[in-house]
Inverse folding.
């Protein structure tokens, strides 16, 4: 059910089968071990998709790992009901309910009606793939005062989804902004 891939084929978000469990790659970095030793290694931060626990693992760069055969399904986010998020498969129109613990930080970028890719393994939702930027409405922020440079021209704003973002001083409540889903940073006005 899994294909073996080399370390050079890895990317953030790839789902691996290791020790009978599924892990998603949160980050990875190549490095060389001690002085005089030229053996290259790959350090990865992995999250267990079922339990949510993260761990650091190190692999030799010549090792191969099992990539889980996951499927990306075009889906639409319908609504959230507490810690449950409801999606609709765009091909079959079937509903899928996903818990907040599965979505993690991605939950703070979801707005009703948004089209996303739902990552599925054997009919079990593992995560969502968001667009690079999303448009969110500012729900609450402090008013910006002319000449206030103590915070280098930015202030905190809470979006309609509960995401906390640093925004320029001139923005106010109900303004719509673009936010980068990879970093959580303000990109511009919508």
């Amino acid at each position: 059910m899994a294909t073996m891939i080399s370390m050079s084929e890895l990317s953030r978000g790839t789902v691996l089968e290791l020790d009978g469990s599924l892990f998603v790659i949160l980050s990875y970095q190549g490095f060389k071990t001690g002085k005089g030793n030229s053996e290259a290694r790959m350090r990865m931060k992995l999250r267990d998709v079922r339990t949510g626990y993260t761990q650091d693992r190190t692999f030799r760069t010549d090792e191969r790992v099992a990539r889980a055969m996951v499927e990306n399904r075009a889906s639409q986010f319908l609504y959230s009901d507490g810690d449950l998020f409801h999606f609709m498969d765009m091909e079959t129109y079937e509903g899928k309910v996903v818990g907040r613990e599965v979505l993690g930080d991605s939950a703070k970028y979801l707005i009703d009606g948004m089209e996303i890719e739902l990552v599925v393994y054997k009919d079990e939702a593992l995560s969502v793939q968001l667009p690079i930027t999303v448009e969110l409405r500012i729900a609450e922020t402090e008013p910006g005062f002319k000449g206030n440079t103590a915070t280098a021209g930015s202030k905190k704003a809470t979006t309609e989804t509960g995401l906390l973002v640093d925004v320029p001083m001139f923005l106010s409540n109900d303004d719509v902004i673009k936010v980068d889903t990879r970093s959580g940073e303000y990109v511009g006005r919508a």
Observations:
- The chain has a mean pLDDT of 87.
